[in-house]
Structures are given as C-alpha cells and as structure tokens.
Give the backbone structure.
Amino acid sequence: MPLQNRVDPFGAIHAVPERGLFTGNRGIIHDPETKTLLRKRWALPAWIICVCEFRSVRREPMGRNRPGGKAGWTELFFLDEVTALAAGHRPCFFCRREWATDFVGRFGKAFGFAEPRAPMVDKRLHRERLASGGRPPPLPVPELGGLPDGAMIADGDTAYALRAGTALEWSFAGYARPVAFDRFTGRSLRLLTPATTIAVLRQGFVPTWHPTADT
C-alpha cells in the first residue's frame, strides 16, 4: 500500500502508487513508527526539491533516517519540477546546487536583490503557497497568455500546466494532451504557482518537465 507522501500542484499530500521524478521535503512531518503523516503539513519554511538518487545514499521512506533511530525529514514525491514549484517548493542547495543557485539568482534579478539568499526566497514563498495559507486571487482567462511556461493554474479541482501557449491537464501519472486557452472561457481560474516563482520563471528559470509533457 503506498505511503501518503505524493504531492499535487495544490500542495496537498496523497497516497497513490505513482512516485514521479523528484523528491523533497518540508521538514519532519511523519511518525516513523506508523509511517503516517502527523497533523501538520510542514515543519520548516524551507520547502525543497531534491533528486531521487544522490551519492548512493539509501533512505527508508518515512522511516528512521537520523542517527540514533530518530525520524529524518519526510520524503515527499512530485511528478516533476513544474508540480513541485506549483506546490511552493524550490530547488535544494545540497543535491541540486546548480539549479538552486540559478533559481535564487533569478529571484534576485526579479526583485532587485544584489545578494539574494535562499531564506529570502523561502520567506516570500511561505506567505504565498496554498498549503501554508496563501490565497491567490481569481485569474482572468485573458491573462493566461502572459504567464510563463511552467506556471500552473486550477480550474476547480483540476490543475493544468501552461506550455507553449496551451494548457496540459495534470495527473499523478502525467500530463494529458494540450488544450487551447479558450477552453476556459467563462470558467473561474486560480493561479497555483506562487507569485515569487512566477517572477523567477519570467526571468528564464527552466524547470524539469515529466516526459508526458512532450507527448
């Protein structure tokens, strides 16, 4: 039976078979004895995106991965980086330093910081992401064309990723065929990707997509 550690673009955590391309964490939010989530959904303002394989390190998901048999950070999984960014995470400086440096550098350009730091990013994201209390305003359909590739929106409970002027419906298994923006005419949309991350995407940060986005 799958563990409850798969994250959707809204930032909610589910138990589904599909794992995805990336892992990451929000601190320790599980009980290693039962391998179930605690009531809280984050323990730190730094929500990161990690690779699933790094330096041959092996971890027991939602187990005891700290010295002394203590619970380590809770392994969360994402379909791809586009999904993780929508949920409010950002690249990890330990296992994905190149991407993290690029992300924070473009954050600095977007907001005018000569020496940007990861905690500055985390502070802004923590106010904006849905899973930590953010409330994005409604998104008019005409504004879709002005959003960068890699942004994610919601039509009700269904999430879409924007790419090359089209919208790709999201699922834990991957993306469906692209649809035109006029499909959303008359619909009430929301922007899922935090405003800070949208600004970073506008500056040219290129997230990793699941292969189904190309098919």
Observations:
- Helices lie at 81-86, 97-111, 118-128, 195-202.
- The chain has a mean pLDDT of 95.
- Residues 32 and 63 are 5 Å apart (CA to CA).
- DSSP finds four helices and 14 strands in the chain.
